[in-house]
Amino acid sequence: MCRPSAVRRGKEEVRAWMALFPLNFQPLDFQIERTFENGDQVVLTGHFTHRILSTGREFSSDFAAICSVRDGKVSAYNFIEDSYALWRSFQPE
With a threshold of 0.90, does the pTM exceed it? Predict the structure, then answer.
């Protein structure tokens, strides 16, 4: 499983982290409900459901994604979700 609270810096670390997603999660639903923008800052809120591939469990959470944009590219990204429910969904029964 990927380290949910780890900070990743640079293109290669982000690419490696993103490559783990399809190995661990099957997206079932993803809804963006609100978008807030202020200069180079964007916040998205919504709800999602994924299936955890190693356990078959479904994980649902509200989320907030906080992004900074510089020169037309995402320069910082923070995803807030129910991390305890995520941890539990990876645990064997």
Answer: no
